[in-house]
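FW: tagging you since you asked about this chain on Friday. Here's the raw sequence from the shared folder, copied in full. Didn't touch anything.
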Amino acid sequence: MEFDWNAANAGHIARHGITPQEAEEAVRIEPLDADVQQHDDEARVLCFGRTKSGRLLAVIYHRAAGQNTRCHRVRNDKTAAATVFWKDMSVPKERIAIPKFKTEAEEAAWWDSHPEIAAEIMKQALKSGAARRKVPLKTVTMRLPMADLATAQDLASRKGLPYQTYIKMVLHEALQEKRRSA
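HL: got it, structure written out here
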């Protein structure tokens, strides 16, 4: 999946302290898609994902057939996304309506002033079972040397991540690097 960044989108996420590379990592490394909203002729996906450094981001993007992926909004969602995973999962019955926007600037302003909406959409998706991963996951059991496990736990702790998540991220990065060099 390749990404296109224009100056407006890259500048917007920079104001939130996020780089294009981090946004791409959040979409590529085991993202959780929460919702799809139709915007003109685009189906925009709201997903939550972690960067290699462990930051939890909410990303809105679309990918048209035969085109590169374009990110529209990215937020470092300590407030909104973390709520989804760590707080009460009670959800209202009605679907949240996202207004139609005339411009990307108008859309950016709306999402910036409504960060709780992304969290609520994720809550509803998790509660209803509509949240889905892009790639299927399989549970595996591995025997690791105790020293490697201790190192992984220590490094994960420094990043504020569960050690299993950290091990998956490291394995994913190593496999991607091997695939590129093969």
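FW: The two ends are 18 Å apart (CA to CA).
HL: agreed, and The chain has seven helices and six strands.
FW: great, closing this out.
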